[in-house]
Amino acid sequence: MIDKTGGPFGAVVVLNGKMLAATGNSVLRDNDPSAHAEVNAIRDACRKIGNPHIEGAVLYSSCEPCPMCYATAYWARIGKIFYTASWANYADLFDDSNIARDMQSARKERQVTLHQIMRTDAQQVWDEFRKLPDGARY
Q1: CB neighbour burial string for 54-89, b if at least 16 within 10 angstroms, e if fewer
Q2: Model-wide pTM > 0.90
Q3: Which of 19, 24, 63, 111 lies 20 to 30 Å (CA to CA) from residue 41?
Q4: What distance in Å separates the CA atoms of residue 33 and residue 45, rounded to the nearest whole number?
Q5: Could you report the per-residue pLDDT of 69-112, keeping only the tens digit for each?
Q6: What is residue 112's DSSP assignment?
Q7: Of 38, 55, 109, 128, which is the active-site residue?
Q8: Would you call 128 a catalytic residue per the annotation?
Q9: Which pLDDT tens digit goes with each residue over 59-70?
Q10: How far apart are CA 22 and CA 60, in angstroms?
């Protein structure tokens, strides 16, 4: 917050009682809308252990995770999140609850509309991927 890199957001990832990562939000510094503190911490922790999964890890956050940060924790297989401020504490500044509501809306009613294209071509790529004996599965 003091360095003005992205607001009063911080996050820590702990695994087996050991701190793997402690980061802040760097959205403004990096000009990256995905550089939330939680995402940055999860990225750092995964790099340190050399695995995209940190099963059994705990995420500590200065705020209730937005949908993107929650999804990142989910994909990383983090089992528990502790947070301090809730969405209601900063609803006048950030629209986390609005994003969550928007995602629950019917696709045609969402703020960001989704349009599927080239489905047949995409299916061919997925069919090829399924045939790979050592294809990444995560």
Answers
A1: beebbbbbbbbbbeebbebbeebebeebebeeebee
A2: no
A3: 111
A4: 20
A5: 999 999 999 999 999 998 888 888 887 888 888 989 998 899 99
A6: S
A7: 38
A8: no
A9: 999 999 999 999
A10: 9
